[in-house]
């Protein structure tokens, strides 16, 4: 016999289907919310990246076009200094000579200093190391020849004749020099060496 349900009787099956549909809708809504949030975050990141990139491009263009960092010219001879300056829109201006510990004929002083931000076409003033009337070096006898050569170069002097003799002293150790240590030496003067060649 066919049974009929009452008007106020709840169909359990329909109720279950309704709950399932509501859960499915909630899941879809959450997925949509996540997608929207992801798009918003992505858009924000893209906007920030574009702003950053634009700022960097502008700064690089503006800085390279109108402003420069003063290069380091100290220790360079005047021709090397001019070549270095030629790579930028700056100018070099020779101001004269000064006494300095740097080798004779090299840039001993510059203004403005290295790293200073300057405008395009700014003059970089340089002073060249002046030749000292005389220099007194420490005793080179007993030093290694390579170290002594480096010391001479730093003081604006040159290596002259080098003679090697058999000796029980270590190879390349200086036995004698000309001029002798303690004598006044002019910058640019040549130094002759007598050095050990060992016992071989």
UniProtKB/TrEMBL annotation:
Keywords from UniProt, A to Z, are:
Kinase, Membrane, Serine/threonine-protein kinase, Transferase, Transmembrane, Transmembrane helix
Q: Which Pfam families has this protein been placed in?
A: PASTA
Q: Which SMART domains match?
A: PASTA
Its transmembrane ranges are: 40-58
Under the heading InterPro entries, the entry gives: PASTA_dom
Start and end residues of each PASTA domain = 64-130, 131-197
Record GO terms (molecular function):
protein serine/threonine kinase activity
Name the UniProt record assigns to this protein: Serine/threonine protein kinase
Q: The organism's lineage?
A: Bacteria, Fusobacteriati, Fusobacteriota, Fusobacteriia, Fusobacteriales
């Amino acid at each position: 016999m066919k049974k009929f349900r009452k008007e106020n009787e709840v169909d359990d099956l329909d109720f279950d289907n309704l709950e399932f549909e509501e859960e499915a809708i909630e899941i879809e809504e959450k997925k949509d919310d996540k997608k929207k949030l992801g798009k918003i975050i992505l858009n924000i990141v893209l906007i920030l990246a574009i702003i950053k990139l634009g700022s960097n491009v502008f700064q690089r263009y503006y800085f390279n076009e109108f402003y420069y960092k003063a290069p380091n010219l100290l220790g360079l001879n005047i021709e090397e200094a001019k070549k270095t300056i030629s790579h930028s829109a700056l100018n070099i201006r020779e101001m004269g000579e000064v006494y300095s510990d740097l080798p004779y004929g090299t840039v001993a002083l510059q203004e403005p200093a290295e790293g200073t931000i300057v405008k395009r076409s700014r003059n970089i003033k340089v002073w060249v190391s002046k030749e000292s009337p005389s220099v007194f070096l420490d005793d080179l006898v007993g030093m290694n020849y390579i170290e002594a050569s480096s010391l001479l170069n730093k003081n604006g002097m040159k290596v002259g004749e080098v003679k090697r003799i058999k000796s029980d002293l270590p190879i390349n150790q200086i036995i004698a020099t000309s001029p002798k240590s303690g004598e006044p030496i002019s910058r640019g003067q040549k130094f002759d060496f007598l050095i050990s060649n060992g016992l071989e």
